[in-house]
Specification:
The protein is mainly alpha-helical and about 325 residues long. The longest helix has 21 residues. It contains 13 helices and three strands; from the N terminus they run H-H-H-H-H-H-H-E-E-E-H-H-H-H-H-H.
Length: about 325
Amino acid sequence: MKKLTLQTAAFRYLEQSYGQWLDILGYAPSTVRTFPTYIREFLHYMEKNGYTQIQQIDIPLIKTYYNELSQRGNQRRGGGLSNNYLNTHLNALDRLLEYLRKQARIEIPPTGIPKETPTPEEVVPLTLDQVKHLYQAADTCAEEYQEKSPGYFRSAMPLRDKAILAVFYNCGLRRSEGAALNLSDLHYDTRLLEVKKGKGGKPRFVPMSLSTVAHLQNYHYEGRPLLMKKANEDALFLNQEGKRATGNMFNNRLKTLQHYSDDAALRQMKLHLHILRHSIATHLLYQGMSLENVAQFLGHYSLESTQVYTHIMEKHYGSAN
């Protein structure tokens, strides 16, 4: 999809300006990056069918496109496209129509296409012991890397890994939120972490425990300077080249820590970054935090999004303390 090339200049401009509009409105970096690629696919479909003007976009055309999209096979895994993918694609189209109404003054109604039933995915949270094993694996992993990485990187890596766990587990941040963190977002004096662009552009402050502050300060003042290439770089998490770390790096580091863990069950789990967020939410509920406070902690718009963790907690841990 990312390799598609638009021939129409107006369509190329629309894709670019749409992404800038999302960014100005405060959408998460992942949304700003991915939604325009979905729109590019739609505009490429228009070109293939002889449409070359923005004014030709209408609901019947979108419905025809979406019907073909929903019947398309998954090029990487086989089978059809997931319902979650189709819903995200539809959200991108709905935002495009909103953009056209507000910015291009084109009177076009919402698509009216019903959302697909989300594809369920069983969430298995980590135990507290498994979280400890991940932290311990940061040191084990650094020892194993003695011959594979430069000395400065071996010294910085365990501190960065523990800071990653502190942000995504202890603070429960989404991947895009963690990737966007800057040094100025760390308020050590008040023990608050500032999320300037949460989901839907919603900002929030997340409380930091003493251990979280310690892990972040250790990386900030001892590990991060070893990775810096530019003195004015404000990104909290840096990669080996001294640039802002991407979401893929965080997942790769988590997979590496999982691999070096001495917990056999943990090594067999289907683990990704969002599981850390699921885990802290479940643990907080189990420890007695109210549903409302957990929702605020996670940056949820409604309690319905947080309620799912009550069911996860009861399934894996029983009733709250």
